[in-house]
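Hi everyone, sorry if this is the wrong subforum. Our group has a chain we'd like a structural model of before ordering constructs, and none of us has done structure prediction before. Sequence below.
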Amino acid sequence: MNRRQYQPYISGLKGISCFFVMIGHFSGLFKYTLNTSFSPFSLNELFRAVSGLVLNEGFWLYLFFAASGYLLAQTYIANIGQLVLQCIKRFFRLALPVLFSCTVILVLLSAIGVHNQETSALFLNNWFQDAYADLPSVRDLFTAPYDVLFKGYCSFNSPYWVLKDMFAASLIIYLWQFLRSRYLRHPLLRVLAEMVLLFVSGNCSAVIQACLLGMVFENYSSVYHQKIPPAHPYAKFITLLFLMISFMLNWGLFFSVLIIAIPYFPVFERILSRRIPMYLGKISWGIYSFHWPLICSCGAIFILYLSEYMSIWCSILFSCGLTILLALSLSQVYTVTLEKLATNITGKITFLIKRMLEYFHMA
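Answer:
Right subforum, don't worry. Here is the predicted structure as tokens:
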């Protein structure tokens, strides 16, 4: 299974997407509140104006979906054995981090508790205050990987709901890449089949469709770059035109176009490949895993405590900053410990399965 050349800016995009998902969830305290009396100088209009993009966690999730599909499509699968191996590897690559991160969340919630319900005395926000109505238990921990990957549910971290469709999309991508390279050699047949695949997936799941869009654009990115090289006098104009059109049609389509468009704008490619975006990409799993339980536990405590000394508005802003620092710190610790352990275990399991497949002449 060969991978194509690594593109650092994609890791930066994934990190930025997870960071803004965290910001979007915290901004839900404003977006979904039932009373706005704590908001000074009529900020509600401002939030309504910008929440569609900067503060919309759903918008940034589509970037993560498209980037994931794009990266998954870079795996070349030559035979059935490699297809089976890659699917099994993908399962453990998600299941073990889910298990380990849910363990961390269980410890966090057991030690600190959830306090989001207590904020109802300060402001009304059912979206926030109804979270963790039932605390997860140790028994839930053992079923967490199954619940997340096959049922789309997680009592430890509700944002994990997307992983079910992302896991399904990854299996579809691996199967499609195998069929595409093995049986669909004619370019026209490939295009028609991929159009049907995107149409069907769009009627099933927007998450799966966004991942598949990333796959399709990865498959044709080299063709686009050959037909319209960066040195072409109208390359930037044509690429910007495609970006504007795709933005009006579909967010998954927009971010898929964005991924192949960035090399046409070297300034943005350099920015996304620098230390901070790359660092966010490195710890992106931790950010996505821990930001919501931290908001409902530590973030709520900060709001309750700080509101005694300042306005609700200011206490929420300070709480947001402190919670972000905690999320980044916990994600860093998790990445260098449990995530590394999960990667090592997955590698050993994959190695054993590969040896078994080789024994049966399937690899």
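For your construct planning: The radius of gyration is 22 Å. The CA atoms of residues 131 and 357 lie 45 Å apart.
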